[in-house]
Design a protein that fits this description.
The protein contains 4 helices and 8 strands. The protein has 172 residues and is an alpha+beta fold. It folds into 2 domains: 35 residues; 118 residues, endopeptidase domain like (from Nostoc punctiforme) (endopeptidase fold (from Nostoc punctiforme), Alpha-Beta Complex), CATH 3.90.1720.10. Strands 3-8-4-5-6-7 form a 6-stranded antiparallel β-sheet. The protein has a two-stranded antiparallel ribbon with strand order 1-2. A hairpin with an 8-residue loop joins strand 6 and strand 7. It is elongated and about 80 Å long. The N and C termini lie far apart (86 Å). It holds the Pfam family NLPC_P60. One of its GO terms (molecular function) is cysteine-type peptidase activity.
Length: 172
């Protein structure tokens, strides 16, 4: 009888272990999808309006999919966040600082409600700053981080929304 209880006990433990593992896998999957919920899947076209800021954004959008590369600012080598902005503005003959810290102070400060295509959105991530270009419908274009690529994301996602610290207009 001791042996029967032992097998029965082992089966119960195995069943519980399976349930725990499945639950953890489910939570991990749910956690990943929540973390990445700010990424816009599929391509929804940006509605350009022909303004200088819109033209800068359109140029930067041509780099969607290019790799993130720290300290770089070119289509052939890739981009970091400030490098993408620097390159896009420079392509239109408009001077903008190269470093994120300097971009966060460039031009004039504007309210989120006044942000237009091509304006710079500034985020604070820990002690570091991150920049992107305002697109339409609450989206922004940026080069996120190592191992990633230039992409559109929602400013209103759970990750980005609480990290927005300001908006800057370079062309006015």
């Amino acid at each position: 009888m001791h042996e029967v209880l032992s097998k029965s006990y082992q089966q119960k433990v195995l069943c519980i272990a399976r349930l725990v593992i499945l639950s953890l896998l489910f939570l991990l999957q749910a956690g990943c999808s929540i973390f990445n919920s700010s990424t816009i899947s599929g391509y929804v076209p940006v509605e350009y309006d022909g303004t200088p800021g819109s033209n800068v954004l359109e140029t930067a959008m041509s780099q969607i999919g290019k790799k993130y590369s720290y300290g770089k600012a070119s289509p052939s080598q890739g981009f970091d966040c400030s490098g993408l902005i620097y390159w896009a503005y420079q392509s239109h003959g408009i001077a903008v600082p190269r470093r994120t810290q300097d971009q966060s102070k460039a031009g004039i400060r504007i309210k989120k409600a006044d942000a237009k295509l091509g304006d710079i959105v500034v985020f604070k991530i820990g002690r570091r700053l991150h920049t992107g270009l305002v697109a339409d419908k609450g989206r922004f274009l940026h080069a996120p981080s190592s191992g990633s690529h230039v992409r559109l994301e929602s400013m209103n996602g759970v990750y980005w929304k609480p990290r927005v610290v300001g908006f800057r207009r370079i062309i006015y």
